[in-house]
Design goal:
The complex is a heterodimer of chains A (462) and B (139). By secondary structure, chain A is of the alpha/beta class. In chain A, 38% of the residues lie in helices and 23% in strands. Chain B is built from 6 helices and 5 strands. The chains are: A alpha/beta (462), B alpha/beta (139). Chain B: Pathway: Amino-acid degradation; L-glutamate degradation via mesaconate pathway; acetate and pyruvate from L-glutamate: step 1/4.
Chain lengths: 462, 139
């Protein structure tokens, strides 16, 4: 039978998913440790063997092999803009949406110290923005000159004031840099335009980064490493919400992905105010928005999660836990491979997951503030209103393997304790049980209709 | 015809009078200005950030609810801090409550560093004429 092989070279595991094209079914999945430091194909081959064993007797012909990757640190980026709340923020959102890990966000004219800092962070790509079209160009040109002078070997994506492009082109050509110029991330004040920059970042990722990370030999066997894993998840989320040409989508949704190191939230929703009389302020939000909380994780980031939440907030979800919260978090961070065995361990992990979900959602969604005016109270909203989003979907190892994913995800819902956070009030809660979201993002590149149908079938009520 | 000048406009403070703001935007566009309207409920920082990103030539601040004096304090100083050293600042609307002598009110705003201040009921055309003069577009 004809099938497609979808591969996710993750930071820890290489995960394979085989999809039967004819019946639109998941044939089998398998995983093994990622081996990017030696030869990425060693881990792949081990996983492949397991996959074939899982498929069993049936004869399978893989007509397409597509991959995404977050191995070797993922796609590491630095974003540069002018004003922190405006073009620097827009650049950051564009990079996040492209599936990057943000190492730093810089604003205004860079100084030598900052340039050195950027250099030492070793980004894979630098995104350079600044100024609206027709607006300020001094800043972006200053920064381009400094980059050209001091950083030679990092690809640069230029997405700033279009009036500065000619000059930047000249600067970078003279310095012999690898760069690409695309549309401004903020062409008009408070209007964002992140898609073109995302696409260019992805193309550089395919062209340059995959090779730089020692994954070129994987491309002899597969048809291509198309995108960073988080970009694949965002792609899957978008097509599941909006649908494809032939297949209807399920509507606005949020995806929560709790990991060992980070907690990601993706929302596919307009986010306009759902209540009358609310004034929307600040930078426009992307329709497909991704946020990454580097301090909220179950293992590698357990201590920073503790620092962000504190004992009382964690104990809110596990009131009778016998552990000292701080000690336990330290222990988990030092022993990242721990899988909970006892009731107490389960309870504590669940509590961590709930706190991570709660805080990550608070940071992702918009807020509403009441403003007292001579005309009475009025409401001002910054960010996305997600009160009426229809679906909340959980993915990632923690939720997929949890006994009670619904309970964890419910920590991300609207609460009267903090009513100014515009979190979903009553969504249907679904779980990506077979862990196929990133694979479906890849599949959607070639077979969008099928990807939507399979997700509808396999992403189920918690 | 565009005249090549960019103007940031908005209503400052906890003030949500949106109608006049739209009229000002419309009138400025008619005269060829590139208008960046940050809308109602805008703090000083939003005006300034917008002016930086768009490389604006002037900021026109509206205030209709009588708290203009409090809301506008320190505006010029913040502009200076942000590197918008010579940007033109206008303010207008119902800037203060009660029947106060306009001359005194005007002086207070000019002392705060605004280039011009306008009393209630000023025709926007008058302000635009001044603006063109201050920007060197007209005699």
């Amino acid at each position: 039978m004809d099938a497609i092989l979808l591969i996710d070279f993750g930071s820890t595991y290489t995960k394979l998913t085989a999809v039967d094209i004819e019946n639109e079914e998941i044939l089998a999945t398998a995983k093994d440790l990622t081996t990017v430091n030696t030869d990425i194909m060693i881990g792949f081959n081990k996983a492949y063997e397991k996959l074939m064993k899982n498929i069993g007797e049936r004869k399978v012909n893989f007509v397409k092999k597509l991959a995404c990757s977050s191995a070797a640190g993922g796609l590491k980026m630095v974003a540069i803009g002018l004003v922190p709340e405006l073009t620097a923020e827009a650049a950051k959102r564009a990079a996040l949406g492209a599936g990057a890990r943000i190492l730093g966000v810089y604003s205004y004219e860079l100084n030598k110290h900052e340039i050195e800092e950027i250099k030492s962070k070793k980004p894979d790509i630098i995104l350079l923005a600044g100024g609206t079209d027709g607006g300020n160009k001094d800043c972006i040109i200053h920064n381009a000159k400094l980059l050209a002078e001091h950083i030679k070997d990092v690809p640069i994506v230029v997405a700033g004031n279009k009036n500065a492009n000619d000059e930047i082109e000249e600067i970078f050509n003279n310095a012999g840099l690898f760069y690409k110029i695309t549309e401004n991330v903020m062409p008009k004040l408070n209007t964002i335009n992140v898609e073109p920059a995302r696409e260019v970042i992805r193309s550089i990722f395919m062209q340059k980064i995959v090779e730089a990370k020692g994954m070129k030999n994987a491309e002899n066997f597969i048809n291509g490493i198309l995108m960073p894993t988080p970009a694949a998840v965002l792609k899957a989320a978008k097509i599941l919400a909006d649908g494809s040409d032939k297949e209807e989508g399920i509507g606005e949704l949020i995806i929560v992905d709790i990991g060992g190191a980070t907690t990601d939230v993706h929302s596919i929703a307009k986010g306009d105010p759902s209540k009358p009389g609310v004034t929307l302020r600040g930078l426009q939000e992307p329709y497909a928005k991704r946020t990454v909380e580097g301090d909220l994780g179950m293992r590698v980031s357990a201590v920073s999660l503790f620092e962000a939440a504190g004992t009382r907030r964690i104990k809110k979800f596990a009131p009778n836990t016998p552990y000292d919260v701080e000690e336990r978090c330290k222990f988990l961070q030092q022993n990242v491979n721990i899988i909970p065995q006892t009731e107490e361990e389960y309870e504590f992990d669940e509590a961590l997951g709930m706190v991570a979900t709660e805080i990550a959602m608070e940071r992702h969604v918009g807020t509403v503030e009441s403003v007292y005016t001579p005309m009475g109270i009025i409401y001002s909203q910054v960010g996305k209103d997600l009160l009426n989003v229809k679906y909340l979907i959980g993915t990632g190892g923690v939720l997929v393997h949890s006994r009670n994913p619904e309970k964890i995800l419910k920590a991300g819902l609207f609460s009267m304790e903090s009513p100014n956070y515009l979190k979903p009030t009553n969504p249907v809660i679904l779980v990506d049980k077979t862990y196929i979201l990133s694979a479906m993002g890849l599949l959607a590149e070639e077979y969008p209709d099928m990807a939507v149908r399979i997700m509808k079938k396999y992403i189920v009520r918690a | 015809m565009q005249n090549g000048k960019t103007v940031v406009i908005g209503v400052i403070g906890a003030d949500c009078h949106a109608v006049g703001n739209k009229i000002i935007e419309h009138a400025l566009k008619e005269e060829g200005f590139n208008v960046v309207n940050i809308g109602v409920l805008s703090p000083q920082e939003d005006f300034i950030n917008a002016a930086i990103e768009t490389n604006a030539d002037a900021i026109l601040v509206s205030s209709l609810y009588g708290h203009g004096e409090i809301d506008c304090r320190g505006f010029r100083e913040k502009c200076n801090e942000a590197g918008l050293k010579d940007i033109i600042l206008y303010v207008g609307g119902n800037l203060v409550v009660g029947k106060q002598d306009w001359k005194e009110v005007e002086k207070r705003f000019l002392d705060m560093g605004f280039n011009r201040a306008y009393p209630p009921g000023t025709d926007i055309k008058l302000s635009i004429k001044d603006l063109k003069k201050d920007l060197g577009l007209e005699e």
